[in-house]
Amino acid sequence: MHIGIDIGTGSTKGVLVDGDGTILRKESVTHTMSSPSTGWAEFDAQQQWWPEIQQISQRLLEGQDAEQVHGVCVSGMGPCLVLMEEDFTPVRAAILYGVDTRAFQEIEDLTEQLGDERIVARCGNSLSSQSIGPKMRWVRDHEPDSFTRAVRWGSAHSYILGMLTGEYVLDHHTASQSDPLYDLTAETWAEDWYDEIAEHLERPRLAWANEAVGSITAEASRATGLPEGTPVCAGTVDAWTEAWSAGVRAPGDTMLQYGSTFFVVQNLRIQAHEAQLWSTAGITEGSRCLAAGTATSGSLTSWWRGQWGDPDFGQLVEEAGSVPPGARGLVVLPYFAGERTPIFDPDARGTVIGLTLSHGPAEIFRATYEGIACGLRQILDLLEEGVERPERLVAVGGGTQSRLWVQIVSDVTGRSQQIPDQTIGASYGAAMLAAETTSGIDTRDWACIGETVEPDPQHRELYDEIFGLYTQLYRDNRETMHRLAELQRGSDTPVQA
Prior knowledge:
Strand order of the largest sheet: 17-18-16-15-21
Radius of gyration: 22 Å
Largest sheet: 5 strands, mixed
CATH superfamily of the domain at 2-239: ATPase, nucleotide binding domain
CATH architecture of the domain at 2-239: 2-Layer Sandwich
């Protein structure tokens, strides 16, 4: 048996699988992100993530022979910044990936200091809210005591790896998203920039996601129920383990992840350096990827539901499905948490335009689906123009349960999508990595395509027009959005998470 656990934005999930991929048990624990100030997104790693790992591990093993667990792998949202003492005790709340936009000034300062062209040439990416380096600099400048106390750093999954094994390790993929600390071509730390930004923080040992890097300690065994000595893989960012779970492994394979945010991963034959996307290392040695991500997706649809008193999701989707394409003249810019790729604008702001007294939740909900799809179309258009065209789109994630959303994405983008017959997610991909690494099991046949969603050509002309309006609205309102963002920051009083 093998265990895969994933720390996501909305929950932590775990699966126990046998040698042929059959799921023996699933467990999950929901949690809530803290946002103590505008643009902040945090979790308490010690009080939230570590107890959740213990709870899920214990539940997965109930009624099972724990000694039959041959491998464990943990993935997590990322890249996050967990600053820690030598024993992995966090010194402050974990700062999340690109949804946390606090380090806007540090992004500007480091870009000016190092030079954008040099950063892209060395790291594969421009600095953005996704980058770890500016967030380190923010902590140093705004919370110097925390920065001084810290000895180590990591992401969500590598923090848990440390707690389980005592090993201070970061996988190459996550490191490649920790701009500008990692040299993408050399596949090692960019030592001069690392020393400049991370300063006294010890360098994590680098490993590939599918490497066994340690084993369950006696202390971790007592806390989790996992057998002492069980091998543990390095793991990686959740989107990549989810891609792995869906069979997105060959060059040209591209994953569309319908989650709290929308995430895209494309496997490449050659290394890319794209300023408007993320160029990264892959899961296994020698693999290369292009990636992209929106700042909101499922998190925005959940937010809307909350504003409306949490109506039944299925009923809301059904009502939105009765609304014609174009949402009766509504366009939504889904920038309610800024935006990541391709505009990299943390000060972009959410917009609903076209509202009249005749519109209601159903129209707004459909327009939100369409707006998210327009953002995805921008990303896919860039991939088409890049170093390698996507050859196969595979849709995964909880959002695929809304077939309306999937169909809207195909209609807006004009592209077909394959949907696996099971989309369990990143935890299943982590279990696959554990099975492959610790037991030599070939897991490629664990993922099977269940259906293909084709775009409706009748809607193409309308959605081409909607897409044009979508892109124009941002260009025309960018300055206004930025001024409003300034006013929002000026009205905030940060509080402790």
